[in-house]
Design goal:
The chain is α+β, with helices and mostly antiparallel strands and 187 residues long. The protein has 2 domains: 85 residues; 99 residues, no CATH class. 53% of the residues lie in helices and 18% in strands. It has 5 helices and 6 strands, in the order αααβαβββαββ. A hairpin with a 2-residue loop joins β5 and β6. α1 packs parallel to α3. The radius of gyration is 21 Å and the shape is elongated.
């Protein structure tokens, strides 16, 4: 069970922590057997728990405990991997934001794709920006596109918040603040 748990954790980190537009679909296909193997490990653990309970007592719960711990730990590792990717690309993304602020890249109150910014933003397959009517700049760097997640990436908000009821609020219901003014977002 320990081997299955380690493979599960590493597979989750590879699949969900480093997913980008270019290889997201391939990793999603490879994740299928990983999920089936982990589900088989959980079922086997439950069978061991019930069949070996009288003979082994609480020790029969160890395989199931390993599954639960590895499931929880894989989530922590995926978040850490995403944060490492974010730290690696942040200087380039900040350069794009500075160019928008300086006026070298024009942005309106419409939500527009910025192909000239995409070349300066590693891992981003789309860069969208909008200046809200209150002057707040929102820049979205789409870096993930795969099943079941439709879109994911990083969002810059010059105000440091995503206003309730705004377009970004409805577009990205799942978000985590990574740094002041920067969010990881997904829908």
């Amino acid at each position: 069970m320990f081997v299955i748990a380690v493979v599960w954790c590493l597979g989750c980190v590879a699949t969900y922590g480093f997913r980008t537009f270019l290889h997201g679909s391939l990793l999603e296909l490879l994740a299928g057997p990983l999920v089936l193997g982990f589900a088989g490990g959980i079922i086997t653990s439950l069978v061991c728990l019930f069949s070996d309970w009288r003979r082994m007592g609480w020790r029969s719960a160890i395989p199931l405990g390993v599954c639960v711990v590895s499931f929880y730990f894989s989530g922590i590792l995926v978040d850490a991997a995403r944060y490492c990717v974010f730290i690696r690309v942040l200087p380039s993304y900040e350069t794009v934001v500075r160019e928008i602020d300086s006026g070298r890249i024009l942005v309106t109150t419409n939500f527009v794709d910025l192909p000239q910014a995409k070349s300066e933003a590693p891992l981003a397959y789309h860069v969208f920006a909008r200046r809200e009517t209150n002057g707040v700049l929102m820049v979205e760097f789409d870096t993930e596109s795969a099943f079941p997640l439709k879109h994911g990436g990083y969002l810059y908000s010059s105000s440091g918040t995503i206003e309730p009821g705004s377009r970004m609020d409805s577009r990205f219901p799942f978000r985590w603040e990574l740094r002041k003014k920067w969010y990881y977002v997904s829908d």
